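Request from the bench team (R.T.):
"We need a structural guess for the complex before ordering more adenosine-5'-diphosphate. Sequence and SMILES attached. Just send the tokens back."

Command: build protein-adenosine-5'-diphosphate structure.
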Amino acid sequence: MTSESNSSAVPGFCDKAPAEVAELRKCLSIAQQSLLASEERIGTLERRLAEQTRELTESNQALRRNIAALEESKQRLREREAKLNSIFNAAVEGIITIDRNGCVVTANAAVKAILGYTEEELVGRSINLLMPPEQAVQHGRYIKDYIDHGHSKIIGSIREVEARHKGGWSVPLDLSLAEFCIDGEIYFTGILRDTTQRKLQEQENREHLEELAHVTRLGLMGEMASGIAHEVNQPLTAIVAYTEVSLNLLKMSQLDTEKLAGILAKTHQQALRAGQIIHRMRDFIRSKTATRTLVCINQLIRDCIGLCADDIKLQDIKLGLDLADDLPPVYVNEVQIEQVLLNLLRNAIEAMKDLAHDHPRRLAIHTRLDGRRFIEIGVEDNGPGIATAELAKIMTPFHTTKKNGMGMGLSISRSLIEAHHGTLRFTSLPGSGCTFYITLPSKEQANGF
Ligand SMILES: Nc1ncnc2c1ncn2[C@@H]1O[C@H](COP(=O)(O)OP(=O)(O)O)[C@@H](O)[C@H]1O
Ligand SMILES: [Mg+2]
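Reply to R.T.: structure attached below.
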């Protein structure tokens, strides 16, 4: 396009100087170009804006969805918390949470019922407040040891402890502990069950058993009186014989002092034995409280055999002992277990009394450890055994097949053994004899009762 032809086509341009027109044309062209460029830029911006608006709408929708999901899980959490809270406060067991320093973080309503403190009174205070002073001293160390070494016997197990009530008295509890972590901080939750009622019941049972044992001891006394009289008679007869010999020796012209001293020593021994038998009887009747000590059962068996030694010799009974040498001591009332053993020995000896003269009589006693938790004592004889019709009756009170029997020995023995958390049973082969078995918890086991 030339400047001449263009100038004639634009109205008003004809009266302008050609240089001016050219200048105006140039300006116009520049303005047109920049208009085009601006339009293009506006187009690009509009496209970008539309894109961003779409993106924003999408993320807005995603955000709305997230907020809704968050609201939902918040609602679920609130429901869960309400549910847990109602369990927490309705629980019969006290639930206390403490932090690593032993400070109470939460306590439920049952804690007030058990220990008298409200949650407000406990939160922020040391758990030692609820412990007897001697335990409180050690408690901080227990927690520290556990955190440092991760080792505790109590986590996950139930333990019997004493807690201190707000009123100052102690409350027996079963305590179980669990731990948990929040944001790297360790917490402990203790679940406390008040065992006061159970303890009272146990105490009542114990007192009842002790009373029963006392009453039965009195009954046993009657039964044993004839046996004891018989036993005391033995040393007395011996004393009479020895003193007669001594008197005869004194009458002799030449006094054999050595012989006399020997006989007097034997007399002395027999007198002591008679005294021991009577003491034993007296202790047995008097002892109202069943004091328990650690007892070596094998030794107790040997002592009892010593008390029946005369009868064993008199009836020509062959005694077999098979006593385990790995028996742990048992925690028992020595007098009571001795009475049970004596009763079984006496029954066995009495059972063999009527065997034919030439029939060999055997009494076998064994002890053994039954799986480390119980010890077993067996007393076996080869007497007539127990007739099938009698089997169910022999342990019942006042059942006897003996002319002078009282029928209390076995029933009392069973009560005494059961008071020790043991058992008394028997096996019998009519015509060939019978064996009575006692089981008693070993020391470690007895600690658990
Ligand atoms: N070793 C035994 N052999 C046979 N019978 C036995 C034996 N031990 C107990 N008995 C039977 O059990 C009964 C009850 O025994 P026990 O209660 O000790 O009372 P008692 O000895 O006064 O009769 C005895 O009368 C006897 O019939
Ligand atoms: Mg008897």
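Two things stood out. Residues 1-5, 445-449 have pLDDT under 50 and may be disordered. The longest helix spans residues 18-90.
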